[in-house]
Amino acid sequence: MKSITTCSFKVLVFIFLFAGCRNLNVEQPDLYFIKKGEISDLISSGTNWTTSKGSLNGTGVNNYLVAGQSLAEGDFRVHVRLTLDSLNFSAASLMIGGNHFGFDAKSENGKSTLFVEGPLFGKAAPIPGSEGKIRSGVPFDADVALKGSELTFMINGEKLLTKGLTGSMNGILALRPWRNNMKVIEFGASGNLVPVSKLTWLFESGASGYNTFRIPAIITTTKGSLLAIAEGRKNSSSDTGDIDLVMLRSEDGGKTWSNLSVIWDDGLNVCGNPAPVVDKTTGNIFLLSTWNLGSDHESDIIKQTSKDTRRIFLLSSTDDGLTWSAPKEITASVKKPDWTWYATGPCHGIQTENGPVKGRLIIPCDHIEAGTNKYFSHIIYSDDHGKTWKLGGTTPQDQVNECTVAELADGRLMLNMRNYDRTQKSRKVSVSENGGLLWGNIYSDLTLIEPICQGSLLTHTFADKGAGKMLFLNPADENSRVNMTIRLSADEGKSWAKSLVLHPGPSAYSDMTVLPNGNIGCLYEAGYVSPYQGIVYEEIAVSELEK
Predict the structure, then answer these.
(1) H/E element holding 132?
(2) DSSP at 172
(3) CATH of the structural domain 277-545, one choice from 3.30.70.3340, 3.40.50.920, 2.120.10.10, 3.40.50.970
(4) Which of 67, 193, 371, 401 sits a CA distance of 20 to 30 A from 289?
(5) What whole-number distance in Å separates Cα of residue 354 and Cα of residue 332?
(6) What is the spatial distance between Cα 305 and Cα 296, in angstroms, rounded to a whole number?
(7) C-beta of residue 154 within 8 angstroms of C-beta of residue 26
(8) Proportion of the chain in helix, strand, coil states, percent, rounded to 5
(9) Would you state the torsion angle of the CA atoms of residues 207, 484, 237, 215, taken in this order, to the nearest 10 degrees?
(10) What confidence score (pLDDT) does residue 22 get?
């Protein structure tokens, strides 16, 4: 009896000390997003989250709990209490501004360990001495706190990582199960919190039977309809595999949209890189696209070890985008035999309105020459209203690829290109004096910073005298795909005096079109924790940019 009493006393002391340790070391947050499994302030709970027995339960790879408030500058504390059903090296984590504070990575001896990853930490790295700090099926407390310049990561009140910061840390707060079953009991934060703007996706990844939607393109038809086109990636977010071309259509300026329709599905193969253009004379719409076997990867095509290569196809619509022709291959007309990789757009093409080649249809493209790893930009064009297509000029210098084209008031063409020269983290530009048959030397536009990503250029209006208005849209950051920003130039790209941030968070590819009312329809990839959570449509008034 004495032995049992002593044992019980020791157990009680342990429970008291554990509870006391938690109360002493883990401050309660000022604001809860989840408490006792009940949602109080979440922007998005992803899919397949259910409430049971005091926790919000979720699983899956692309499934996130996103807090309704994000961190601004200053000290903060983020607190979660949760359970992981298993420790299987799942990479489940708490995310703060793109950084992962992870619960389940693989250590050198094959055991589960905590980890960190992201802009502050680099590639995923296990935290030394963190093995066994959490157990499967047992609730634990995780806290990340910033005080001054010191960042701390704690589990059950125990400091496991301390890091000095030279800059700030802010952004979206989220939890991800990532191949695990996560049961969230509490999720809250203290600090300088600001509401997160809710994104409304036109194409939402995970919907309509597609894992991911990517690579947006948008045009306005001669009848005023909007056609929003994208890649529907069936089974993953990968650039290869089963990829279809899909479309949404609006007849009221983007206020409402049709159901999703599939323009081109070639089984398990890639139908991608949409580049649509409208012939304003006939009203016909042409969609240029590239194809490859779903089993062939870009690197294999470049090395010429693939089973097939990249091929170029043309689809057309004569009824305002309601129906489309069967794909017609035009590879022999627009691709040289010694080119390996090839991409159309991705973004809208143009029809020239001025100069000696008025009425020419132009699609921006890029390619790689065999035996090299050098990207070049080029154009293809049609002078007979889309009946035949020819190869235009190539940039005289390399290290550029995905590009977008616009016409200047005097009939010259401007090519704005994705830049691979990391010594200059800005867009590259080239100008053609003869309708795209020859391109001038490439130069940098230092205002248009980029993180190596596609962008979109659009002529808004031609001036009667002097220069017209031009717009540019991209993730305006030198290092990361964030901060989707639209810019206005009143001097055809010589300067960009006005700008507006559409989404400060993760964002990537984009396209624009001039709407019937003169405003700008912007279609861009965006998300809370990843740029590829969906594709957003947003209407912007030019007058808003001119303020």
Answers:
(1) none
(2) -
(3) 2.120.10.10
(4) 371
(5) 29
(6) 9
(7) yes
(8) 5, 50, 45
(9) 80
(10) 39
